[in-house]
Design goal:
By secondary structure, the chain is an alpha/beta fold. The chain contains twelve helices and 17 strands. The radius of gyration is 25 Å and the shape is elongated.
Length: about 375
């Protein structure tokens, strides 16, 4: 290789590394994925995450970047060793970041790279991210327009995610990832267009004559599913029987508890569903949670697209910062008293095959 070609190759590789940082900073995930060969690999053991191929890198970038409040990456040139149409090298990184669930810090890292010459120029064949130093002390600054941070000695509270962010429906790609994760965790998962499709599917899933409990859910009310089940018809609806009980007597209170705990089928919604395949339910009294947790022989959860979140930490922030305030308004109007977040149920998996079905909607519905 002559000196001119070597110089051109080094410039091309430096441009590739600079393009990577720019794509990250601009949150241009498609461009980021295009910087890798079709079989390229992005490994981040300290996250941890590993993505092979452009589709996985694109999806992984979307998941990671959806968690950021802000992120700044400064890259510094490192070594490049050329070997014909391949090369190896390292780049040095300084980053500061804050996520929407309040994690934050400063780190210094190294990218260990393998490059390959292609018809489109130099591409990453492999990029391995190694953190060399991490400081998770609270950051005193903030991105313009984000929540102001304390500059005192006490750690500042995590920034609140805007309500609009928790009300925005997930993309088709995110819904597919959630469905795949749910299936891997033992749930049956289906993606449906809208509330009408969910209403029809619920009727198909519940056998005639089954005792059916509907949870207190705006999703079920708005979709018409609550009315379908609790009106006189083919099911042994539990809710009308509960409302007829005198709970001031010991016998009535005991019957109330037993009816709630073990119906044939429970139909409900959730406060959040994570991209890792977990369901999060919240309750003030906890009365509907036993059936969802395993007391009911079968469970069906109808979930609007806006309830998709990256992980459990963000799910809890959605419950506290978005769902609870909306439910509190409803509770005051309906019952004349405030709501409360007294019970949380997290379902990470379904150990009984065929018991739990999650109907994911492509539209937003409920809180």
């Amino acid at each position: 290789m002559n000196d001119l070609q070597a110089a051109l190759d080094r410039v091309g590789i430096e441009a590739l590394r600079a393009e990577f940082t720019d794509a990250v900073m601009m949150r241009d995930r498609a461009r980021l994925a295009s910087l890798f060969t079709p079989d390229g690999v992005l490994r981040m053991p300290d996250i941890p995450a590993e993505h092979t191929g452009r589709d996985e890198i694109l999806a992984g970038g979307e998941r990671l970047q959806s968690q950021w409040d802000f992120f700044v990456q400064n890259s510094h040139p490192g070594t490049v060793r050329l070997d014909g149409d391949t090369a190896t090298g390292r780049a040095y990184i300084q980053e500061i970041a804050r996520t929407l669930d309040g994690r934050e810090g400063l780190n210094y890292a190294v990218y260990h790279d393998r490059y390959r010459r292609t018809g489109e120029g130099w591409k990453f064949a492999e990029r391995v991210y190694e953190v060399r130093y991490l400081d998770t002390s609270p950051l005193t600054g903030s991105a313009p327009g984000s929540v102001a941070r304390s500059t005192g000695t006490e750690p500042a509270p995590a920034p609140a995610l805007p309500a609009a962010a928790f009300g925005e429906p997930a993309t088709a790609e995110r819904l597919e990832r959630v469905a795949a994760a749910l299936r891997a965790n033992g749930f049956a998962a289906e993606i449906l267009d809208d509330a009408a499709a969910a209403r029809a599917r619920v009727r198909e899933l519940i056998p005639e004559g089954a005792s059916v409990l509907t949870g207190a859910s705006e999703t079920l009310r708005l979709s018409g599913i609550e009315e379908d089940i609790n009106a006189p018809g083919p099911y042994d609806a539990v809710k009308p029987r509960l409302l007829a009980l005198d709970r001031t007597t010991a016998e009535g209170a005991d019957t109330f508890r037993r009816l709630l705990a073990s119906p044939d089928v429970v139909v409900n919604s959730v406060a959040a569903v994570t991209e890792t395949g977990s369901l999060v339910l919240a309750s003030g009294s906890g009365s509907q949670l036993p059936a969802n947790a395993g007391g009911a022989a079968r469970a069906v959860w109808v979930v609007g697209a806006q309830k998709v979140v990256p992980d459990l930490a963000t799910a809890l922030r959605r419950v506290e910062g978005h769902a609870l305030p909306l439910e509190d308004v409803r509770a005051r109007e309906t019952y004349g008293r405030p709501s409360a977040l007294n019970r949380l149920l997290v379902l990470h998996g379904e150990p009984a095959p065929g018991r739990g079905t999650v109907l994911l909607l492509r539209e937003s519905l409920g809180f």
